[in-house]
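Fold it.
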Amino acid sequence: MESFSGYQGTQSWLSWFYRGILILGILFLLGRTFELTIIKGRYYRDLSEGNRIRIIALPAPRGRIMARGGEILVGNREIKKRIIFDPQTGFEKIDEIKDANPEEIVAEYERYYNLGEKAAHLTGYLGEVNENEVDKVNPECPEKGPRENGNLIGRSGLEEFYDCLLRGTDGEELIEVDTKGRKIRVLGKKEPVAGSDLKTNISYDLQEKVAELLKDKKGGIIVSDPQGQILALYSSPSFDPNLFLGSQSNKDKVAEILKDGNFPLLNRTIGGQFHPGSIFKPLIALASLEEGKIDASYTFNDQGQIEIKTPYGNFIYNNWYFTQYGGREGTINLIRALARSTDTFFYTIGELTGIDNLVKWAKKFGFDKDSGIDLSGEIGGLVPSPEWKKKVKNEDWFLGNTYNFSIGQGELAVTPIEINRYVAAIANGGKICTPQIINKGETPKCTDLKIEKGNLDLIKKGMTGACSAGGTGFTFFDFSPQVACKTGTAETNEDGKTHAWFTFFAPNDLPEIVTTVLVERGGEGSKVAGPIAREIADFWFKK
């Protein structure tokens, strides 16, 4: 009896032990089922759906960039691709579309630049987003969403400045496939939204012309109307923006552009600083008139040079006419001094006016900051002053520094767009305007400098004299309509190398265009930049 009772107790304990294991197993299975169906059910459903749904991106075309006459400066080529579904890779796009069903065809777009290197610094180019830009939202257009790997964005020029407007919103198509990756049906489609087109103030044929005139030279050309609408803008050397898209051979050419010591990617018209030389003299004359230091009756007797006696020694400052030909102008007034670009006259009125007033007027005309043109990469000029020299060089300011400033030399450095804007202000009656490439249909943004009309008229007469018989702008002596101009030959730090400048507006009484030509280290302004300016005027007025 005792042994039977022991056996029964043992059997009872084992029975409950196995029952407990069974119950724990059932609870574990129930818990796992709950986790898979309730807690993680949505995750696994989404995963399952993902295995049979393909999301195909539908790229949106960028907006076009057009010239003022509607000609296409930058457009898009539509490229047809065939979608091939695969159970391993999901899908791929191939170029072969022969025998493809219409529903297998999708469109992609390739950017093209009609004028190529003739308008590269205007249009800019496209480049792929880098690792720091992927998944980032452009704060100027957050509604466009984050940039994804492989997206193309503007890298310079209008492409970069107006990237938000030009960039479209990509669409997508949801495709259901079977276990073998074969398409079953389209579940939904979101159409892409193209970017906005932009219409510029650029004259298509004039842009081509200025590019041809500056070919094989370093420098820049800007043509605008007197209110700042840019009709043409070209920087040389240039590059072909089409090369930044496409094949490996193109990538090799891009590498050459990046290594080029002539810096073809630099937009010299807005991003290069140059000594202005004599094209700065109208501003000196205007400052002297406005400050009341001289008037229309003021005269000066040029003897070819001015000597300054100082405790540090004697310094002689020559007039260019005396240096080159041993000539003297004799007694001249402001109009004649501008026409002949007489250095000694401007040394003298610069001294009378004082460096502080000269700096004040240079800044009024915006030479110390960027012009506000709607292009990426602009920098401002450098307007030196006694305070600047002491802070930067720890040197005192001398009268010789004022003399150099008064003829556009010394530390003074400007950009071609700043020169064109200041000459346009003389042409339009004293309003400094923001240069504008895109035609927004708005009133030009101009600030009235409140310059006396009589003073402006004197400057215009002097500039008209420069392009009349006896002036320095000999290339325009026989031109009609009458042109107002100024030549400039600016010394550089290289021995014998000078920047050649020529700027003009025409007609001189009712200006249509304002033009600035710079040939970097090109030689004498009247001989090198002048003929280029004449061809631009011929082209514009004959057209």
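The radius of gyration is 36 Å.
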